[in-house]
Structures are given as C-alpha cells and as structure tokens.
C-alpha cells in the first residue's frame, strides 16, 4: 500500500448509515417544510393511479363475462365506457401530479445541495488550523464534489423512487388481499425469496460502495498533492514513482467500484427472473384453484374466476417490478449515505473554541481625556472589556505589549515542543527569534495569534489574558507575513486589499510602495489591475512575497509577525524590502523569524531557541560579546539547519 493510502476511511459504526439517512430526510423537511409534503402527496397520488388498472381490469373482465352470457352488449357499453372515462380523468391528473413533483424535486434537489455546500463551507471557516494540518486538502475538496453529487442522486432519484415504488407495492398488496388471500400468500412467498437475495447481494455491494467513496477521496487527495508539487516531482525525477503510487490508488478504486457495481448489476436480473417465475406460478396455482373449485378466501368475497386470475397476473408483474425498483435503489442509497457520512463528518467537526469576550473597537479621546468607543475609523484602537461582576465596561488602549510567562506547549499530548518560554515585548519593540529548524520559532507566533492554545503558562496582550480576547479581534490586531505566500485569483490590487477590505486604491498603492512592491507592479502588463491565478504563478517568488508584505502593510496592525518574510527574496531585493520593512515596523511591536541573521541585527531583543527552550536573549551586540551560540552562528562556527 503506497503511503498516500494510509489513514483514510475510519470504520463505520453500526447504525450510522440509518442515522445519516434520517438526518438527510430531516434536513429536507427543515429546508422545505411545505414543498416536501406536497411532493410526497403528488408521488403517492401518481402511485395510487398506477395501481388502479388492476381494479379496472377485474371489473371489466367481470362485466365481459356477464355480458357474454346475456349477449346485451349495449348495456355493457353503458357500464364499461364510464369506467374508461374515469380512468382517463385519473390519468390526466396523474400526469399533472407527476409533472409537478418532478419540477419540485428539481428545485428542492439543487436548493438542498446549495444549502449543504453553504453549511459545509460555513462550518469549515470555523475549524481550527489543526484540522487542515491533519487532513489532505484534496480529500476535503472531494466532499464538495464527489460526495455532494451522491446526495444529488439520493434526493432527486432514490428517495422519490423509494416513495413511489413503495406506495405502488402497498396499494397493489392491498388490492391483491382484497381479491384473494391465497394467491397473495403465493406472491408474498416470492417476495421473501427476493428479500433474501437482496439482503445477501445488497450487503456485499454496500460494503464496496462505501470503499469506493473512500477510494475516490484518496485519489483526489493524491492528484491535488501532485499538482501542487509538480515542480518537485520533476526536479527529483520522481515521475515513475508518482505514476506507481497513482496506479495503486487507481487500481484500488477500480477494484472497489467494479465489485460494488458487479454486485449491484447481479441483483436486477435475479429479481426480474424471480418475478417471471412468480408470474408463471400464479398462473398455474390460479388455474388449479379454478379447476379444483377451491373456495376463495378474500375480503371481497368473490369466487375464483377469470376476473380474479387475469388482474392478479398483472398485479404480480406490477408488484415484483416495483419491488425490483426498490431493491435497485438500495445501492444508490448506500453510496449516497457513504458520501453523506463524509459530508456530515466535516460538518460535525468541532469548531474552533472561542470563549473570548474582550473585543477590539475604534476609539477616540473625549473632551475629558477618557477613551470612548466610536464608529468612525480613527486609527486608534482599544480593547473593550465588559465586567460581569458590576456590569461596567473599560477601554484599554491597544499598544502592542505582548508577554509570555512560562509557557509550555505540545501539538500532541505528551510530546512538549515548548518548555518554560517567557517573552516580554514592549510596544514598538522588535523581537527576533533565531534557531535551527524545529526549535519552536514559528510555534511561538502560532500561540500569539491562537492558532493553537497553550498547555500551561500565560500569554497577555496589553495586560489582558489572550484567552479572554475574541479570536477574530485578536487576529485583526496582528499582521502576519508567512514564508509560504498565498495569493488568490483576482487582480494585484484585490490581493493587496485582502489585508483590509475597506482600503482605498490609494491606500493599497501606498502599502505597496512601503513594501517596495510598487516598482515591479507598475511594470506589469496591466499594473495593479493585472490578474493573478494559480497562486500568482506568473510572478516570481520574491514578487509574490512583496505583495504579501504589502497586504500586511495595508492592514496597518499594531503588531507584526514576520515568519521568514524575506527568505524567498534575493539579496538585492532584500535591501529594498528591508527599507520598506523598517518603515512598516516603525512604532509597531514586531516578531521576526529569520534564518538570515543580517535581517535581525537591529532587533531590540534577539532570542536563540534550541529544542523549544530559550537558551540566549539580548541585543545583537550583547550576544556577540557573550560569544555563545548566537556568536557562533553569526561567525559561521555553527550553521542553522
């Protein structure tokens, strides 16, 4: 098994399938409380009309037998023609009913999928970063495409067919019991045979339909990974290995799909032939009852005759045919429920916990020198802190003071990656973290913006425990430039404005100038209106990073986190960016993570980390004078790995 096939498809618990199906039905009724009952009524009405011909045939056959004896065909016409008229009227309304329900189903199906996708995406927005760190992005994308499509088939085809065929089966069964209990028992014996076969074959197909859904997710995850890493694949000449991994995943999908559909395709012919055999058996048994003179046992009290046997043969065909439709829908339902379970798994993921109640607001100073809240954009911010004890509200100026006191943290319980970390950043200070890969530099910044929560210790922002600050407000006060640049489909201007959606074009241009990006943007074919796609693949890595820095600059936050922000920029560009960064960092609290020690020399405090511990701290000159680890890194005695 290739590495990409590991870790997928948790085993299903008993009853999960039925629970998921019930949940789908409940959601349909919730979304469309009026349309769903109307649609069900239309389906059942059409099903009832389709069962009427059996009664009609019996009545007409009885009339024909009667008038064959009397020879009074004019009287026969007076009786038979009105019945035909009634049947025509019923079929007319049945056509209207079927047309209406099909239109309603088309509307409800697409509406249901629309609401499901919205619910999925809305829920996904609230998931913690840890979810995306532990799930393949391609597999998540599969929820929105393949798994949602199985729900479309369920809502638009399987459920209506289930109701329609089930209604016909019940109507026909009631009519059969009305005419002859004995012949009905023969039919029910055939039904038991059909159910046994359906259970045996359907159980096998269900297992493989579930596997098929999981295999599709694995394959889509792998393809997405290969698309993102195509350059790496080619650089290391791993095309053959990638092809082998894909072939293994593709073959697994083939096996699961083949077995699922092989079982499903066997079921139809088996049930059809059981129905044919049952038709012959009814004809033989009915003939024997007729010849033997056996007394009929029925609700109607009618004796055995041609008027009973002929419609019963038709009803047998109708009964087994609809039962066949019911059994055929089992496979579609199983596949849809397998997709639904994956969709619901995403929707039921625990959202990111946020118990914060301190919010960030625009503020201004009143005539008495007190800080008050305002709806105007004043470029002055304050933390709005409600106190439950006395109901009062206090406003704390947003300055950018960040402290960490004896913080411990572990991504996985029992494996601590930060040990007793203490950091004190005063407003306007530049704090730099250096150390080998895996030392814990990025982890510290992830804790400041609460992508993860600490195991022990305290983190305070302007003297407020960050657990009390609402996460969205906390993150709004922080500007982050990551090593991995993410640009979105749209113009350069739109990507810069992503930092603050209400920023004007002029503010975006000023931010680009500050970051040193204005020069190259102006030389693009359409300047700031140049369209970007595929994460800005038409730009160099350095240019993409400059746009990311401009995006952070337009947000104008009091605290900046620069995680290897200049790592992908050449030395000449770095000098340009550094000037812009110095202007950007002026008056702000800044946390810098860098491998290039030249970028952190002017930091107020440099902290050296090793295996999650701060082993040195101080200014550049102090650490050089101490001749410790930082000195050895700076002079080249040690190298960052």
Describe the protein's architecture and organization.
This protein starts with 15 loop residues before the first helix and ends in a 6-residue tail after the last helix. The chain has helices spanning 16-31, 35-70, 73-125, 129-134, 137-179, 181-228, 230-235, 239-292, 306-347, 441-448, 471-476, 492-497, 505-515, 518-522, 541-555, 571-585, 620-626, 629-635, and strands spanning 359-365, 371-373, 381-386, 393-397, 402-412, 415-425, 430-435, 456-461, 464-465, 478-481, 490-491, 531-532, 559-563, 589-593, 605-610, 613-618. It is built from 18 helices and 16 strands. The strands form four sheets. Strands 10-13-14-7-15-16 form a six-stranded mixed β-sheet, with helices on both faces. Strands 2-1-3-4 form a four-stranded antiparallel β-sheet. It has three domains: 108-348, ABC transporter type 1, transmembrane domain (ABC transporter transmembrane region fold); 359-397, no CATH class; 402-638, P-loop containing nucleotide triphosphate hydrolases (Rossmann fold, 3-Layer(aba) Sandwich). A hairpin with a 2-residue loop joins β15 and β16 (613-618). It has 641 residues and is of the alpha/beta class. α2 (35-70) runs antiparallel to α3, α3 (73-125) packs parallel to α9 (306-347) and α6 (181-228) packs parallel to α9. The radius of gyration is 36 Å and the shape is elongated.
């Amino acid at each position: 098994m290739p590495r990409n096939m590991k870790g997928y498809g948790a085993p299903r618990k008993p009853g999960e399938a039925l629970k998921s199906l019930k949940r789908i039905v409940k959601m349909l009724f919730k979304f469309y409380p009026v349309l769903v009952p109307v649609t069900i009524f239309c389906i059942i009405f059409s099903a009832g009309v389709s069962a009427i011909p059996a009664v009609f045939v019996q009545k007409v056959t009885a009339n024909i037998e009667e008038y064959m004896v009397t020879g009074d065909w004019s009287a026969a016409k007076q009786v038979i023609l009105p019945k035909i008229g009634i049947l025509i009227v019923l079929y007319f309304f049945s056509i209207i009913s079927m047309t209406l329900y099909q239109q309603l189903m088309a509307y409800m199906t697409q509406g249901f999928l629309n609401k499901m996708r919205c619910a999925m995406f809305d829920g996904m927005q609230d998931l913690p970063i840890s979810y995306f760190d532990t799930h393949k992005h391609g597999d998540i994308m599969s929820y929105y495409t393949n798994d949602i499509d199985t729900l479309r088939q369920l809502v638009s085809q399987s459920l209506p067919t289930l109701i329609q065929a089930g209604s016909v089966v019940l109507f026909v069964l009631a009519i059969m019991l009305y005419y002859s209990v004995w012949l009905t028992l023969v039919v029910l014996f055939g039904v038991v045979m059909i159910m046994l076969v359906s259970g045996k074959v359907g159980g096998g197909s269900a297992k493989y339909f579930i596997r098929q859904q999981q295999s599709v997710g694995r394959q889509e995850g792998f393809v997405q990974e290969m698309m993102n890493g195509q350059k790496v694949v080619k650089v290391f000449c791993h095309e053959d290995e990638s092809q082998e991994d894909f072939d293994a995943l593709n073959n697994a999908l083939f096996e699961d799909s083949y077995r699922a559909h092989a079982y499903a395709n066997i079921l139809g012919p088996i049930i059809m032939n059981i129905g044919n055999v049952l038709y012959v058996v009814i004809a033989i048994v009915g003939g024997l009852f007729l010849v033997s003179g056996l007394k009929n046992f029925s609700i109607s009290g009618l004796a055995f005759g041609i008027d009973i046997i002929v419609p019963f043969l038709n009803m047998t065909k109708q009964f087994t045919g609809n039962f066949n439709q019911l059994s055929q829908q089992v496979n579609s339902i199983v596949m849809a429920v397998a997709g639904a379970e994956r969709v619901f798994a995403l929707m039921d993921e625990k959202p990111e916990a946020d118990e914060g109640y301190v919010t960030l607001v625009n503020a201004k100073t009143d005539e008495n020198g007190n800080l008050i809240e305002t709806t105007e954009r004043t470029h002055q911010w304050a933390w709005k802190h409600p106190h439950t004890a006395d109901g009062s509200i206090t406003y704390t100026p947003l300055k950018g003071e960040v402290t960490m006191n004896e913080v411990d943290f572990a991504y996985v319980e029992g494996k601590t990656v930060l040990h007793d970390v203490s950091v004190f950043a005063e407003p306007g200070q530049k704090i730099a973290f250096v150390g080998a890969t895996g030392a814990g530099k990025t982890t510290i910044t992830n804790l400041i913006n609460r992508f993860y929560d600490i195991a022990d210790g305290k983190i305070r922002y302007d003297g407020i425990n960050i657990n009390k600050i609402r996460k969205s407000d906390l993150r709004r006060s922080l500007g982050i430039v990551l090593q991995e640049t993410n640009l979105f489909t749209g113009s350069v201007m739109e990507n810069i404005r992503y930092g603050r959606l209400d920023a004007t074009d002029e503010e975006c241009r000023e931010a680009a100038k500050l970051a040193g990006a204005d020069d190259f943007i102006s030389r693009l074919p359409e300047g700031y209106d140049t369209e970007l796609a595929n994460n800005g693949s038409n730009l160099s890595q350095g240019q993409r990073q400059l746009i990311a820095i401009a995006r952070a600059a337009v947000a104008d936050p009091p605290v900046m986190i620069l995680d290897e922000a200049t790592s992908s920029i050449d030395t000449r560009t770095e000098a340009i960016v550094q000037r812009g960064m110095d202007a950007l960092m002026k008056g702000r609290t800044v946390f810098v993570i860098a491998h290039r020690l030249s970028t952190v020399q002017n930091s107020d405090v440099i902290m050296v980390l090793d295996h999650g511990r701060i082993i040195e701290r101080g200014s550049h000159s102090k650490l050089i004078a101490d001749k410790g680890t930082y000195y050895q890194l700076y002079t080249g005695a040690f190298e960052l790995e």
